[in-house]
Amino acid sequence: MQALAERVGAWLVGATFEGYDPLGFTGLKTVEPPPEALVGASIVGVDRRAKYVTLHFDNGLRVMFHLSQAGRLDFETPPKRTRPKGSVVRWRFSDDRAVLLREFGTERKAGWWVLAPGDEGPVEKLGPEATSDEFAQWFRTADDGRRIHTILRDQRTVAGVGRGYADDILHRARLSPYASLKSLKLDERERMLAALQEVLAEGLDRERLRTGGLSQNKLGEHFTVHGKNGLPCPVCGHDLKRVSYESHEVVYCPTCQTGGKVLADRRLSRLVK
Ligand SMILES: [Zn+2]
Prior knowledge:
Layout: H1 2-12, E1 17-22, E2 43-49, E3 52-57, E4 62-66, E5 71-76, E6 87-93, E7 97-103, E8 111-115, H2 133-141, H3 148-153, H4 162-173, H5 186-208, E9 241-244, E10 249-252, H6 254-257, H7 266-272
Antiparallel strand pairs: 1-6, 2-3, 3-4, 4-8, 5-7, 6-7, 9-10
Helix pairs in contact: 1-5, 2-5, 4-5
């Protein structure tokens, strides 16, 4: 999302908002101020917080949007009049530019917010950014009994990691996804923080090489272990394993991360019965 925010900024800073076309399902999550209040205002900056991208306008209003798992942005010049599958909204800007927000998933979580000054909207309850000193300080001393993998996925504890990077970070740090934070020694905590910085920085470098508006759809192929159950671990060569849940899976290397122990996969044990 950081790389996407940079591309949106390069494309739209200085552009004046001319109007919008609501398409498909109701993606607009706010009532006040109305999107009409943006007409005539210019974008002065674009940034990111967790998985939300914010467009800052010169009249103090902001537009925030979230792409969810299967969302994407299309940059259009000139603006199209089509309504492709999954369309949420098309924002029209000066100089024949438009941005189309789309959602391919069935969950329909992509959305956008128009926010008045001081209103943090959906990011109000988010934890500190993953790469911030604030999170590092907390992580070094916290007595949290939850598993590290759970902590990394919890946006209220730490913003901007997600399940894919959580797998890769713990693999890099050689830590079990099931270890509780409370149980970690100081050197293990430092290893996790260093791995987090490295993995996220490498992910951002890769994303910056991309062009256009596409966000997350093809990110999977860039992960080190996430989504690669059954393939050889890139470090030791042994097979990667997974633990499956309803909505996601955790991939890890038993040799590198759990001292050779294979964690119980509930879905697998159901199948074997
Ligand atoms: Zn390994």
